[in-house]
Amino acid sequence: AKRMTESTGNYAVTLHRLLEFNPQTFGFMHHEKNSLKLDFLIVDEASMIDIFLIHSILKAVPLTAQIVFIGDVDQLPSVGAGNFLNDLIRSEKVPVTRLNFIFRQAENSLISYNAHKINQGEFPTSSAPNSLKDFMWIKEDNVENLNGHLENIFKKRLFQLHLNPHTATVLTPMNRGSAGTHAINHYLQSLLNGTAGPHVMHRGTTFKVKDRVMQIKNNYDKNVFNGDIGFIESINTEDKIIQVQYPEHLIAYELFELDELVLAYALSIHKSQGSEFDTVIIPLFTQHFTLLQKNLLYTALTRAKKFCFIIGQARAIFIAIKNTKGTERITFLYEFLTTDLACR
């Protein structure tokens, strides 16, 4: 929501905040008996909405209002049940407009070129006629060599490409394993922020001054939200207070509130959906086998604005681009929209 406000200049909120989620009842203040006071609603990242949330939205919107859903059905579907946006588009029951001009990357970007290739089940390329050189595949069959490639990228390649290492993010399919977020965050913390100084431990994670961190849940009291990224400004080891500098403000956390923070040198691809980063680095190995899917790789690649690296095995990439099972969900919403069941 914050990024939408910055991009459009218009006020934007999360859907839960719009509907006024009540943590005591686990329900929403707005519903069919207390509808929202609006005439027009634009819902972005609609592919991430599960069937329960869209049900709540439609109940709360007045019958006289109009809704525009914006989203990319080729990205990962919602974490919760359903495949709402895909079912809605397939039903052909509502007007659909497809955007063909890409704004995140340059018009001749190799990132967007490869995103189209992946969607078509084709292997990405490191070169194309008249394209920018903003994509690189580093072929590596041994996952044990991953850290060496990361060091080379963060300490050398990014500077050669005139890219800021502080805006580079590793996006990986899993949290566990040697190519997962936990291991990579630990390594990159030591590589990029190895200086001694004040630190606190919380549930096995060491937080240090200058660490890059992400807020992982909405905190309306602090005005900081899921997906916000900042840097630890200071740590008071006596009072156990951490201050995090976000782009717009400085936020203080007590020790018990650190459940809301994770190190953000590396993120899971699922957690990155809806975000964008100047530089994205994607480790892809067969140890990620269960999560190697076309929409996962497409989602990771399209988070990059200026440059994307893929480090890994050709076989892992082939498995991902040929695996479309992640897009298949049995929901019956399409059937309800396209048959007389909708009238019953």
Features:
11 helices; 5-stranded antiparallel β-sheet; 5-stranded parallel β-sheet; alpha/beta; 27% helix; 344 residues; 22% strand; Rossmann fold
Structure description:
The protein is an alpha/beta fold and 344 residues long. The chain has a domain at 2-101 and 327-343: P-loop containing nucleotide triphosphate hydrolases (Rossmann fold). The chain is 27% helix and 22% strand. The strands form five sheets. It has a five-stranded parallel sheet with strand order 5-16-15-6-14, with helices on both faces. A five-stranded antiparallel sheet has the order 12-11-10-9-13, with no helix packed on it. Helix 3 (51-60) links the parallel strand 3 (40-43) and strand 4 (66-69). It starts with a helix and ends in a 6-residue tail after the last helix. 33% of the residues are buried.
Task: Examine the secondary-structure arrangement and name the CATH architecture of the domain at 2-101 and 327-343.
Answer: 3-Layer(aba) Sandwich
State the secondary-structure class.
alpha/beta
Largest sheet: 5 strands, parallel
CATH superfamily of the domain at 2-101 and 327-343: P-loop containing nucleotide triphosphate hydrolases
Count of helix runs: 11
Shape: globular
What is CATH's topology name of the domain at 2-101 and 327-343?
A: Rossmann fold
- Overall helicity: 25-40%
Task: Set down the secondary structure blueprint.
Layout: H1 2-8, H2 15-19, E1 21-22, E2 27-28, E3 40-43, H3 51-60, E4 66-69, H4 84-91, H5 110-119, E5 135-139, H6 146-160, E6 168-172, H7 181-192, E7 199-202, E8 205-208, E9 212-215, E10 229-236, E11 241-245, E12 250-254, E13 261-263, E14 266-268, H8 269-272, E15 277-284, H9 294-301, E16 304-312, H10 314-322, H11 333-338
Parallel strand pairs: 3-4, 5-16, 6-14, 6-15, 15-16
Antiparallel strand pairs: 1-2, 7-8, 9-10, 9-13, 10-11, 11-12
Helix pairs in contact: 5-9, 6-7, 9-10
